[in-house]
Amino acid sequence: MVRTQRASQDIPDIVVSRLPLYLQALTSLQEQGMAVIKSHELAAVVQATPAQIRKDFSYFGKFGKQGMGYSVERLLSEIRLILGLDRTWNLAIVGLGRVGRALVSYRGFLHQGFHIVAAFDQSPKVIGKKVGRLVVQDMAYLQEALKTQGVDIGVVAVPVAEAQKVVNQLVQCGIKGILNYAPTTPQVPPGVQLRTVDPVPSLQSMTFYLKEASTAKVRAKRRSRPKGRAFP
Amino acid sequence: MVRTQRASQDIPDIVVSRLPLYLQALTSLQEQGMAVIKSHELAAVVQATPAQIRKDFSYFGKFGKQGMGYSVERLLSEIRLILGLDRTWNLAIVGLGRVGRALVSYRGFLHQGFHIVAAFDQSPKVIGKKVGRLVVQDMAYLQEALKTQGVDIGVVAVPVAEAQKVVNQLVQCGIKGILNYAPTTPQVPPGVQLRTVDPVPSLQSMTFYLKEASTAKVRAKRRSRPKGRAFP
DNA sequence: GCTTGTGAAGACCTTCACAGCA
DNA sequence: TGCTGTGAAGGTCTTCACAAGC
C-alpha cells in the first residue's frame, strides 16, 4: 500500500483541531472572491502566525507555490479531504429536552454535511412525537435504529445525571464518535472520540481575566497575541 | 500591597482553562458526599494525571495536606475565588433568532451565576417583543442599556455576516468579555476576552479520527490517554 | 523580488521523582 | 506510611530563519 500522507499518529491533535478553523476562514474568503492566499494573510484572519499555518499544512503535503501563496480552492478541497468531509455524516440525537430540540432545528449541522437522522428519548411523553422532521424513538430501539439509519455520531443532550449511562449505551452500540452537551466529562473507552460542548467553562475561564482586569491595572499578557495580527 | 497569589501573567492560559473542569467534577463529587479527595482520584474523574492536578493547584497556593489529600469544600471555594465566581456576572444577548432564543431559556447559565439581563436585536419584527422574561431592545440603545443594566459579558448570536460588526459595537461600548456563537473568528482588540462556541469544528476534527478508524486498522494513538485512567 | 517548506532553536507544558510533612 | 508540593527533566508545540523555487 502506497502511503502518500503522513500517518495520523504523527500528526499532533492540536494541528487537526485547527484545520476546521482554516476551513471556516477559507470558505468565507472564497465567498468574498479570493482565489489565492498567502500564509500571512490567512494567519491574520485566524489569528495565528504565518509559520504556524505553513507548518500545519506541511504535515499533510505541499499545497502552496513559492512566491505565490496557496490556491484557496485547492486548500479547501485538501482540508475537506484530510478531515473526511468529502461525505456526509449521520447524527442521532439522544434527549429531546430544550437543548435537544434546539439542536434538531439548528441549521449549522446540515450546512456542513452533518445530517441528523434519528432522535431518541426515554420519556413516554416525547416518544412517538414529532420534532422537526423526526419522530422520537424509544431508547429501547437504539441499537437497531442506529444500524438501520447508518448513524456515525451520537449527540448527547440529556441531563448530567444520565449522561454517562447514555454514553455507555451509545458505545455499546458501536458508536465511535460522541458530541456531548451535558456539562460533565463522561468516560469513554480508547478509540471513541468524545467532544464536549459547554459554554459555561468558557465563561468561567473568561471571568478569571475579567476579574484581573477590573482589580488590577491591565498589563500586556505574556504571549497574549501573535505578532503581526491586525485589528482594524 | 501584599501579594499572596501569583500574578495572573505567570499562570498559563491552559491551566486557567482547566479550572472550570475541576470545579464541575468537584461539585458533582461533593453532591455525592465526598469530603476529601486525592490528586489521583480527581485525575481519574477529569482524565488527567495526578501530577498535573497538583501542579495546576500549586500555581495558586497550597490547598492540600500531605498524606491526606484535599478538602473538597476548600478546593471548591478556592477555585471559585480564583475564577472570580464569588459574584454573579451579567450577560446581554445580541441576536434573537433560533440560537439567541434557545440561549435565553438555557438554565445552565443561571445555575452557574451568569444572569442574562438584557436582549438586543436590530429587526423591528422582534424589538419590543418578549423573549422569556426579557423585552428585546433596539441595538440603538446598546451602549446606554449595557451601562444601566451593568452588563459584563456580551453574547453574540447573530448570523456570521453580522458577527464582526456586533463584536465591534460591543467593544465600542466597553464590553471586555464576549461569548460568540457565530461560526466565525471575530477580531477583538487586546484586553478583550473572546470565546467562540461552535459544535461544528468539534465534529470536523472528530471525523478526522473516525475516518482513520474506518479506513485503517485502529492502532493505539500516541499519547491517546493519560496513564492510570479507568474505564468501568 | 517574494513566499513556501522545513530543519533547528526556543518556549512552553507535562511528567518525573523526591523532599517534606501529616 | 501516604500524599502533597515542586524543582528538574523530558517532551511537545511554536517560532525562527533560511534554502529552494516560482
Structure explained in plain terms:
- The structure is a homodimer of 232-residue chains.
- Chain A contains nine helices and ten strands.
- With 232 residues, chain A is of the alpha/beta class.
- The first copy, chain A, folds into two domains: 13-83, Orthogonal Bundle (Arc Repressor Mutant, subunit A), CATH 1.10.10; 89-199, Rossmann fold.
- In chain A, helix 1 (13-31) packs across helix 4 (72-83) and helix 2 crosses helix 3.
- Chain A is globular.
- The interface between A and B is large, with 76 and 76 residues.
- The structure holds a DNA duplex (22 and 22 nucleotides).
Brief synopsis:
2 copies of one chain form a homodimer. By secondary structure, the first copy, chain A, is an alpha/beta fold. Helix content of chain A is about 40%, strand content about 15%.
Q: Largest interface, by Cβ-Cβ below 8 angstroms: which chains and how many residues each?
A: A-B, 76 and 76 residues
Helix content range of chain A: 40-55%
**What is the overall pLDDT average of chain A?**
91
Give the name of the CATH superfamily of the largest domain in chain A: NAD(P)-binding Rossmann-like Domain
Strand line-up in the sheet with most strands of chain A? 6-7-5-4-8-9-10
Identify low-pLDDT runs of chain A.
Answer: 1-5, 216-232
Q: Which structural category do the helix and sheet elements of chain A fall into?
A: alpha/beta
CATH architecture of the largest domain in chain A: 3-Layer(aba) Sandwich
CATH class category label of the largest domain in chain A:
Alpha Beta
Oligomeric organization of the protein chains = homodimer
Tally of domains of chain A: 2
CATH topology of the largest domain in chain A: Rossmann fold
- In N-to-C order, the SSE pattern of chain A is HEHHEEHEHHEEEHEHEEH
